[in-house]
Amino acid sequence: xxxxxxxxxxxxxxxxxxxxxxxxxxxxxxxxxxxxxxxxxxxxxxxxxxxxxxxxxxxxxxxxxxxxxxxxxxxxxxxxxxxxxxxxxxxxxxxxxxxxxxxxxxxxxxxxxxxxxxxxxxxxxxxxxxxxxxxxxxxxxxxxxxxxxxxxxxxxxxxxxxxxxxxxxxxxxxxxxxxxxxxxxxxxxxxxxxxxxxxxxxxxxxxxxxxxxxxxxxxxxxxxxxxxxxxxxxxxxxxxxxxxxxxxxxxxxxxxxxxxxxxxxxxxxxxxxxxxxxxxxxxxxxxxxxxxxxxxxxxxxxxxxxxxxxxxxxxxxxxxxxxxxxxxxxxxxxxxxxxxxxxxxxxxxxxxxxxxxxxxxxxxxxxxxxxxxxxxxxxxxxxxxxxxxxxxxxxxxxxxxxxxxxxxxxxxxxxxxxxxxxxxxxxxxxxxxxxxxxxxxxxxxxxxxxxxxxxxxxxxxxxxxxxxxxxxxxxxxxxxxxxxxxxxxxxxxxxxxxxxxxxxxxxxxxxxxxxxxxxxxxxxxxxxxxxxxxxxxxxxxxxxxxxxxxxxxxxxxxxxxxxxxxxxxxxxxxxxxxxxxxxxxxxxxxxxxxxxxxxxxxxxxxxxxxxxxxxxxxxxxxxxxxxxxxxxxxxxxxxxxxxxxxxxxxxxxxxxxxxxxxxxxxxxxxxxxxxxxxxxxxxxxxxxxxxxxxxxxxxxxxxxxxxxxxxxxxxxxxxxxxxxxxxxxxxxxxxxx
Length: 737
Prior knowledge:
Layout: E1 31-34, E2 38-48, H1 53-57, H2 64-73, E3 75-81, E4 87-91, E5 98-100, H3 118-145, H4 157-164, H5 172-186, E6 192-197, H6 203-216, E7 220-224, H7 228-241, E8 249-252, H8 258-270, E9 275-278, E10 292-298, H9 305-315, E11 319-324, H10 329-336, E12 341-345, E13 356-361, H11 364-376, E14 380-384, H12 391-401, E15 407-410, H13 416-427, E16 433-436, E17 449-454, H14 462-469, E18 480-485, H15 493-504, H16 511-522, H17 530-539, H18 541-557, E19 568-570, H19 585-597, H20 601-615, H21 620-637, E20 642-646, E21 649-654, H22 657-664, E22 670-674, E23 692-697, H23 705-715
Parallel strand pairs: 6-11, 6-12, 7-9, 7-10, 8-9, 10-11, 13-18, 14-16, 14-17, 15-16, 17-18, 19-20
Antiparallel strand pairs: 1-2, 1-5, 2-3, 3-4, 20-21, 21-23, 22-23
Helix pairs in contact: 3-17, 3-18, 5-6, 15-16, 17-18, 21-23
C-alpha cells in the first residue's frame, strides 16, 4: 500500500517557476521595464530572421538547405517602444531582462530613452537606497537566528492518528508545507513562516496541525484573526478537530460576556487553556500566557501598524506562522529572498471549481433568477451591502424578489449575542439568504452557500472583492458571484480597472495575481514607507525587488548576484517555441521565461517535464532551445562569460580558464588557453577580474551546430558519478565524445 503522504497529483499545465513569475501576463500596450534600457511599452511578439540570411543562402527559390537554415535561425522577439518611438527587439530567450511595470504612477510613467543616462542614474540611486533596507532586514533576521527557540520532538503516534482523521485528501502543496513547518518547529531557532495560499486551499488545516504539535508538547497556541465572526468559526473548527484529544480551545471576542472573558483570561494565565483564538484583543496587556509556544496570524495584512510592531516582538521569542490569501507583494518577496520562510499552496483541492464571476448592472430580474436557481438546488445565498444605515431596506427588497426565502441580516454594529445568533442561524441552514456587510469577508466556510451578490461593487477594494468571492465555491458545486453596479451613478475609471481585474482573475489560485494587480492599480503607496515608494515608481516593483535581492546577496556573500542568463552562447543556432506547439502568447512567454531563468540542469529538466505534461512531446525547435539553455547553464557554472565560434575554434571567455580546460580534457581536438594579457579582448568580469580566452578546435565534423550543441551540453556538465553515466532522459540524443 502507498501511504497517502506519497500520493502526488500530476500537474496538467506548465507551472510558473517563482511566485513572482505568475504575474507575467503582459499584453500589447502594457508598460514594461527593460533591465538595461528602462521603461517602455510592449507592442507585441514577432518572429524574425536575421537579414544576413539572404546573402548567406542565396536569392531565388528557397532550397531545402535554405529552408533548414531559415528554420534554425528563426527567433521570436518582444517589440518594445521607448521614448521618441524608437523600438527595441528583445529575443524571447532574454525575456528575463523584461518585466511588467508595476509602480507608483497612477497615470502613465515617462518612457526611457535608449542609450540615455537617466535610467542608469535612476537605478544607481535606488541601489544605494535598497542597501540600507537590505541591511535592516538582515539585522532582524540575524537577531532571530541567535535567539533561543523551542525545538519540538518528531511526530508521535498521536500526531499521525490526528492527521489520519482529516476527512479530505491533502493536496501536494499542503503536504509539502506541513513537512516544512514541522522541520521549522523541530529546529532550535524560532519559526517565522508565511503560508501563502488562495481562499479555500487548506491553510486552516495546516495551521491546526501545527497547533496540535505545539499543544502535544505542552505549549500554548495563540490564533490571531482579523474579525470576530472568524474567531468564532475558528473556535468551532479547532474544537471539532481537537474533540478526541485533551486540549482546551477557547476564544476572546465581543460575543462573550465580561464574566466569560475574565474566566478565560484566568485559565489562560494558569495554563488550563491550550489554544486561544481572538482578534487584536489577544494583544492587550491583560492577556498573559503560562507558556506560549506558537502564534498563528490569519491575514496579517489586515492588522494595523501598532499591532504589527507587537507581532514583530513576538517573532523573536516564539514560533510564528502567518497565513495569507492575498499577501502584500513585499512580504512575499521578503520570503523569496530568504528573509522570511515561505510555503505556497497553489494546488486546489480535488473537485474544486472556479467561481463564475460577472460584473452586471443592478437588475432585479437577474437577481431573482439567480436566487431561485440557488434555492432550487438546496443552496444558500450571500447578499453583501456594506452600508448599515439602509441594510434593512435592502433586505426588504430582496425579500420582495424571493417571497418564500428566509432572510437574516447581519452587520458589525449589532450586539455580540444578536450577531452570533444570526450567523448560527445561517450556518445551521435555518435561513436561505444572509444580507450582511463585509463581516463575512475572512474565513467564513459554509459549503452550501454558493451564490453571492456584492452590491455597489465599485466601492470595494480588489483584495476585499477577492476575499468576499472566496466565501462561495468552497465545495464541488458550481458557484456564482455577481458584482452589482449602481444604477444611478457612473463608475470611476480606477473602479472599472478593479472590477475588470476581479472578473479576469476568477481562476483558482489567483490570489497573488490579484495582490499584484491591486498594487499596480493603487500604486506603491506606503508598501515600504514613503521613502521607498518613490523608488518603486522610478524603476518598477520587480526591478526594485531585483536590486534588493542583489543588495542582500552582496551583504551576505560579498559579491554581486549572477544569473545563468548573463552568459552569452552563440553557436550559429537559435531555438524557438512554435506557435502551433503553444498557441497562447501568454503561456508561450511563461515557457520562455522559465527556460531563461533556469539556473541548474535540474530546474531545466523540470521545465521540460512540465512542457511534455502540458503540451506533449516538444518539436525540434523547442528541443534546440532547451539544448542551448543546457549549454548556457553549464558554461555559467564554470564562470564562462561568452561562448562563441570564431573561425574553426570554439572560444570561451572566462576569468577562470583552468576550470574550462579541465572539463575539456580528453575531448577530441586541441585545447589551448590564452592569458588575459594576450587575449583578443581586454574585457573584465563584473568583479574586475581579467578575462582569458580558451580555444577548442574540434574535428571539422563536430562543427555542425546541432552536434556541437550536444557535445558541449555533455562535456561542460558536471563529471559523471563513479557508478557510470546518468540515465538518459526519454527522447534525448546520445552525444558524441
